[in-house]
Amino acid sequence: MSASLYLAQVVIVAAAVASALSAVPESRRRPIRRWRLLLPAGLAAFTFVAEMIHPSLEELDQPEVWLVAVAAGVAGFARGHFMALKVDQIWNVIRLPRARDGLWPAVVLALLAIAEAVEVALAAADADDLAFRPLVEFGMALVAGFMVGRAATAWFRIPHVPHSELVEPPR
Predict the structure, then answer these.
(1) Cα 38 from Cα 41, distance rounded (Å)
(2) 163 and 91 in contact (C-beta within 8 Å)?
(3) What is the pTM of this model?
(4) C-alpha to C-alpha distance for 138 and 86, rounded to whole angstroms
(5) Nearest Cα to 154, choosing from 79, 104, 75, 98?
(6) What count of other Cβ atoms lies within 10 Å of the Cβ of residue 170?
(7) pLDDT per residue over 96-141, tens digit each?
(8) CA 169 – CA 166 distance, rounded (Å)
(9) Domain segments of the chain: what residues?
């Protein structure tokens, strides 16, 4: 197998693990900066697209995978619209009182990426003979779509949420 295949798998796994790690502060129910809400979803989207385009751009022509991503995005939109948000408009921080649904999909994404990397590493000669790859693509589409829909909707809701005191002003 080529070194580029292994390098691509390392990048995919690194992005997926970074997505899971970046979702941890949000799940701790502490105030976070607004941009931290978008980081796990952005890394999940990058992971999904990187998985789709490797080894060639023709892999993007899979409407059924994109349909799964869009359907999951709609579910994420619904979750982002109805989840509880507390926003400190002065200090520009947010807190998600019940936000474990951002961490667990990111962990699933990391596990899928690691499983795919293990399959690639164990494949004897041919990268085209990866039986687990379609399942990984559908799983990543599901997770990334949900995470992007959830984060984008919550992000656009932030200016319209009433102010809550989340940060003590310096005395």
Answers:
(1) 5
(2) no
(3) 0.89
(4) 33
(5) 79
(6) 4
(7) 887 788 899 999 999 999 998 888 887 755 555 667 888 999 999 9
(8) 9
(9) 3-160
